[in-house]
Amino acid sequence: MAERDEEFLEFVVKGLVEHPEDVKINRVVDEMGVLLTLDLNPEDMGKVIGRSGNTAKAIRTLLRVVGMKHNARVNLKIKEPVGSSRGSADTGWDGSHETPPPHAMKSVDEAMEDLRL
User: Fold this and answer.
1) 62 touches 12 (CB < 8 A)
2) How confident is the model at residue 106 (pLDDT cuts 50, 70, 90)?
3) Selecting from 3.90.800.10, 3.30.300.20, 3.40.30.10, 3.40.50.2300, what CATH number does the domain 4-116 have?
4) Which residues fall within 8 angstroms of residue 27, CB to CB, at 6 or more apart?
5) In what order do the strands lie in the sheet with 24-30?
6) Does the pLDDT at position 92 exceed 60?
7) Shortest CA distance to 13 belongs to which of 98, 86, 76?
8) CB–CB of 79/39 below 8 Å?
9) How many C-beta atoms lie closer than 10 Å to residue 62's C-beta?
């Protein structure tokens, strides 16, 4: 597969972001497959992740298709920028979880009332 997956990711991401010069991709191959780690300008995170993570999910799906064509498993990890409100930068956001939309916390009585409806 050489680095076709990396070239593909670079092409897609640089087409989405405002700061393509800040796009950095690290490619690691091990027994689990290929791991592409994406580093971006903090201002571009929203464009790559998308609303509810949909853009990142779509990019991951396309990378898996590229990998399947070459009999490889390809995963994408998006590193969080330093100073992110989501947590520390070295944990990275890998798309394996979704942050629920912010809602006001309900009392136990309100939650029970919702169940009765």
Assistant:
1) yes
2) low
3) 3.30.300.20
4) 3, 5, 6, 34, 35, 36, 37
5) 24-30, 33-39, 74-78
6) no
7) 76
8) yes
9) 16
* pLDDT over 50 at 89, yes or no: no
- pLDDT tens readout for residues 38-63: 999 999 999 999 999 999 999 999 99
Distance, in Å, from the CA atom of 66 to the CA atom of 80, rounded to the nearest integer, reads: 24
In the chain, where the domains are located: 4-116
Helix (H, G, I), strand (E, B) or coil at 47: helix
Residue with the two structure tokens 């009392």: 107
Q: Residue 80: which pLDDT band, with cuts at 50, 70 and 90?
A: confident
**Two structure tokens written together for 65:** 């298709």
β-pairing verdict for 74-78 and 24-30? unpaired
Q: Which residue bears the tokens 């009332």?
A: 113
Whole-angstrom distance, CA of residue 101 vs CA of residue 33: 32
